[in-house]
Structure formats: structure tokens, C-alpha cells
């Protein structure tokens, strides 16, 4: 196997780190609006009625596959987080005591008290999840649709999220998760705290006339429009050169974009090392030592902790303005949607789409060959 093939294989695994890693998505029932239409995923049309107005007892929501998912919520319900981003949200809303299974690997190492949970990563995922006997399985977008169907065929209740395309999608995902597990109030608080951070970073550069050009790169790929990372860069005050070049989703990065766009800043996850030589060494970013490494779990996983790299970027580019925004922008300044809409497209992750799951299997096989 040549080096290029191996790198591309590893990329798939890393972006699966968006959920293996979870590129989560979608559903958003507003915790502040428990009555009426409930949101399941980013997009348009379709809604599902909630069968009970409170945040206990039975609730029915429609996921990205068009499946009506009914859950009987209680304080002692058992939940499996199929991807790390699912787990991150559960921890952030204080529902970790209900988790009986999650991927116990490097992508969830920042979560406390995960050691006594069933590890549902690696081979035999279906058997591991079924063995945990959960009342609910949360499946972030990059989860293999076949795995979801196998779990449903085994009699388990699975909510499959859509792809997150924006920071607001993260907040709405948090609210959806809260409704599903009966933690509406804490989910609403976590979502609104996240929205406040977003509003403050946006306010920091509201009057800027010259925003820095930014390239996000990881393992030979970049991110264009329609991803939470693109939205984070733009919200923090940068101009995403990949988006300006017309790229959408996660795409392979070619040298022409680096040369033509000559980014002033290069941003990357800290589990990746910037390439050396041409054309990177010729960019303004490298020549002026303007590169930023972000925690790979926080930036890759579309969960509330995206707020940390988001703030890091804004503080780098607009430190004084961000400090002022932190003093002057309050929760009352943040718009909180009462209701969101639902899309019923197939379960695809940003950029890579449903093929991520298949590619991840291929990548794992290639890595195994290299090790043998």
C-alpha cells in the first residue's frame, strides 16, 4: 500500500472522528416549546407531534430516516451513545448517569466517569449495543444506516440524527437529545449557553471591515460551506478560503487552492501536523507564523464543546472586541427559536455523506493490511 492511500484511509477514520467522532446532527425539539410540532433534523418540512407536554413519560419524534421514534422517558432509563458526539451532548446536559454504553476510545477520553460503561466501538457494534439492553440508542449522522437498521431489527429504539451544517444545528441537537432522554431544562440551558458564546463571537467582529482569510486543513482535506467547522470559522470572524473557492462539505484539498487563495491563517486539528514545503511554506500564514491548532475532539465533534475552539479563534483575531462582547452581550440578546423544521432526506454526513460508513470499513481494512 502506498503512503497516499494510507493517508486517505486514515482521513476517513479521522472524519469518522467527527463521530467516531460523530458528526451529529439534526433533530431539534425546542425544550422551551414542548407543545406542538417537534423538530427532528436540519432541513425543511415534516414535523411530529409530541404525545405529552411535560418532559417525562412518553415522547414521539421523527428522525432523519422518517421513522417515528417513541421513547418512554424516566430517570432510570438506559441510553447508548453510538458515537462520541452523542456522548458529549449527554455529558453536557448532565445525563451521563443514564448512559450504559458509548465508544470508550481516544475520542471520548475527555469525558469523566466513562470507564464503567460498555464500549460500543470497534467490531461487533450491534452485538455490544444489544447486550447493553438500552431503552434508547442515539445514533449520530455518520453511524452506518445498516447498523441502525440492524439495531431496530433487534428490537431496539434508535434515533438517527441528520448532518449538522451549522452551529445552530448543534444547539438544536442538544435540545433534541434533552427531549429524548427527559432532560429538557438542562438541555435548554446548555443550548442557550452555547448560543450565547456564538452571539458573542459574532458580535466581536460585527464592525470589522477586513476579516482574515483562513484555510482549515486536516489530512489532505478541507471544509467548505455546509459544515459546522465552516460556520465556526466564519462566526469567529474569518473568511473561509475553501468556501470562497466554491467548495461544499468536506473535500480533498488541492495545491491550487492553497496557492491561489494564499491564506493569512491556517487552522487545523491538533492530531494533525501541517504539511511542509511548497505550497504551504509560501503562504502568508506560514511565513508570518499564523497557524492555530485546535483540540481535535472539540472541533471535529459537533457538540457544545465547539464553543471552546470557536472562542479560541475569535480571541486570536479580535481579542479586544471579544472581551467587550463578553461584557456587553447577555443571554437576553440571544434569539432562541421556539420551533424548528424537519428534513426527511437520507442520513448523510456533511460532505462525505452516507458513504462515510462504507469508507470507514474500507479504511480499517487497509490499515489492517499495512499492519500485517
From TrEMBL:
Keyword annotations of the record: Membrane, Signal, Transmembrane, Transmembrane helix
Gene3D superfamilies from the UniProt entry: Nitrogenase molybdenum iron protein domain
Gene Ontology terms describing biological process: cellular response to iron ion
Xref: PROSITE patterns: FE_B12_PBP
TM regions (residue ranges): 351-370
InterPro entries linked to this entry: ABC_Transporter_SBP (IPR050902), ABC_transptr_periplasmic_BD (IPR002491), Peripla_PGF_1 (IPR026469), PGF_CTERM (IPR026371)
Domain Fe/B12 periplasmic-binding as annotated: residue spans: 78-321
GO CC aspect terms: plasma membrane; S-layer
Pfam family, one: Peripla_BP_2
Matching PANTHER family: MOLYBDATE-BINDING PROTEIN MOLA, VITAMIN B12-BINDING PROTEIN
Protein name (database record): Iron complex transport system substrate-binding protein
Species of provenance: Halorientalis persicus
Taxonomic lineage: Archaea, Methanobacteriati, Methanobacteriota, Stenosarchaea group, Halobacteria
